[in-house]
Amino acid sequence: MSLSIASRPASGIATHLPTLIGQLRAMRAMLAVVQHGSTMRAAESMHLSQPAVARSVLQLEQACSAALFMRGARGMMPTTLGSQLAQRIAAMLQHLASGAAEAQAAATLAARRSPLPQRFAEIVPASQLRALMAIADCGSEAQAAQSLGLSQPAVHAALQGLETSLGLQLFYKLTFGTRLTPAGEALLRRVKLALAEVRGMDSDMSAWRGEIRGRVVVGVLPLSVSIFLPRAVAMLAASHPDIEVSIVDGTYESLMQQLLSADIDAIAGALRDDVPEDEVRQLQLFDDDLVVVAPADHACRWREQLALKDLLECQWVTPLPGTPADRAMVRLFQSQGLAPPRGSLNASSPTMTLAFVLQTGRLALASRGQALQDNHGGQLCILPLALPSTRRRIGLAMRAQSTASQDLALFTQACVQAARASTEPVLSLARPPK
Questions:
Q1: What is the extent of the structural domain holding 300?
Q2: Containing H/E element for 8?
Q3: Is the pLDDT assigned to residue 259 strictly greater than 80?
Q4: Which single residue of 6, 281, 293, 326 has CA 20 to 30 Å from 83?
Q5: Are residues 125 and 226 in the same domain?
């Protein structure tokens, strides 16, 4: 198993493009046969010859190394694998159609032409999708061409063809490179979602062959994740060593944008109530709350009827201003009519926060689970102060509109098992008095 940790998803267009994207035309033909029941009727709907459709279906079966249809005198019925792939192809084409429509909506009125989003999904070639992904990733036609192994004129022609097919300006040509217009950004997001469905096809085929392999990219939020995620990754590595897991961090807003653009597959951390339910599915793993952490010999540890206002006398390690942790601290103190402590020492990393508490004697807010797990051999303690208003749901956020790939489903299952194994012994300890 391969595990990588970074501050953002790995760059390089090769990491974005699934192998089956080259079969885009064949995938359209395959879906038409599923919908119409025969190559003849599919050919009529696509305005192609019957032999051309039959060749495309056979080409896709060869690329998949699997039979996708059961052929009979009355027509063609998809196999179980064929039905799975057809569902993903339909979702992919819908994303491309939505991308065309959303690009039209994002363009200026003067730039718009009559939108034909469904027509765009039916005709756009794979080469233009590759060029769009490469120019967004690389920022210049020369670098995009190098990443794709093509000539710069070939990439330029593909980008021009994309603009012509939509009747929109998708790119700004600048002295230092090429950038996407708002219409181009709208199209790019949907193309990424379409390609995520094609990657799901790769995963479906691997599972059908009994080969569990793939890649899961997880965005992590700082608090509470360490309680279950390392154990989940270890469990997944032990049972499915061919699944690669990449961990990236960032703010909630940036990670949510990456999730909705298919740059990452899941977000691990505190769940939110204001997510778009039609786009995001949340899986709660456990509840966690915030606690006040202090060195084990801190005088406040032994005080009876300790109140939050009593801690204003102490020095604190405070979160960076404007971060979710800072907002949580502000809400906590303001709920009791208090101004939050403002110290000269700020830290954004939970691990560094606990280290500063240990070495400087200050107080800090921390996740209960992490404080109990990372208490430096008993040198840190949780002060006997209940903070019920800070309880949060911890779990995973994933895209709701896509069927989870086999590798993502196995990662989710590992997180459920790891959370249960990690939180039952940890979060049951040292509960504060009610």
A1: 290-390
A2: none
A3: yes
A4: 281
A5: no
